[in-house]
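1st attempt posting a full record on here, be nice pls
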Amino acid sequence: MAKPLVQIKNLHLRFTSFEGVSHVLDGVNLTIQRGEIVGIVGETGSGKTLTALSIPALIPRGEITGEVLFDGENVLNKRGSALQQFRASRIGVVFQDPTTNLNPVFTIEELLIDAILTQQDNVPGWKLLPIGKWFNRGQRRTAKAKAIELLHYVGIPDPEQRMRQYPHQFSGGQKQRILIAMALAGSPDLLIADEPTTALDVAIQAQILRLIQRIVTERKVAVALITHDMGVIAKVCHRVAVMYGGMVVEEGSVTDIFERPKHPYTRGLLNAIPTQTMEQGELRGIAGSPPSFLNPPTGCRFHPRCPDRLKHCHMHPPAMVTVGDDHDVACYLYTNERRS
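the predicted structure (as tokens):
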């Protein structure tokens, strides 16, 4: 197998507050290959977004240990202009809510041109300049042409005219397309999409997902897709990492995860998906509540809610074991300790 674009190794993250120390990520391991869509799925608060934002080192203040390798370089060792240049030229981020992530006092033209000018390493003959540096008219003309091209690429009709409008003059789906265009401004190798279909109707969701698939196919971009929606995972992802309590509990291909789920938590997520043939009363949720990061359970963090827990599940966290081709799970049901 080719060398991964991204390798997250044994990532730990702690936040200290007046309440105590929160153990929000606990030994996360994850790989992303070039040209693939990896879904990161789990309940709210499972650590999905923090795991993805560790890649461009956008984690808020906290104690972070481990490695985040991007093309073999540890991102956590980058500082200052080197980190800025890395973010601008290698990674694009589509944040969750387009309404709050597009500044309402600027036109789409101003927002896109600023994004392009601060990520100009991909423009021939240009060199990345510090944020806040003035740009000449020639650079802005070139950036405007690129902005029109990006809006056309993501499916905004009549981009030359609509660039002059403000965010409130666009629908929710169009705002999401604009955010994707801004994320593509630096021609990134990795696109991080945080709940890109939230608050969109089903038809618009499908359009956004098809756009992401087209970007992967045509631009050879890798995508880390953060979602709580297993239906979205099934539609577009190649591989899935299931997270619970700040840990990856199962990882595998979409086919393996949906047809041969191993971890009780993964099975619980799949059982909670309604289907057209489901009888009344068949829909089953997962009992209990997600763990507290201030005082997480010992051993497997899922054991207090697990219907298949064993007597030693509360003692030590289970190691990740291979249960199939490119299919791993962290559960005592699949280790020799099950028989002890």
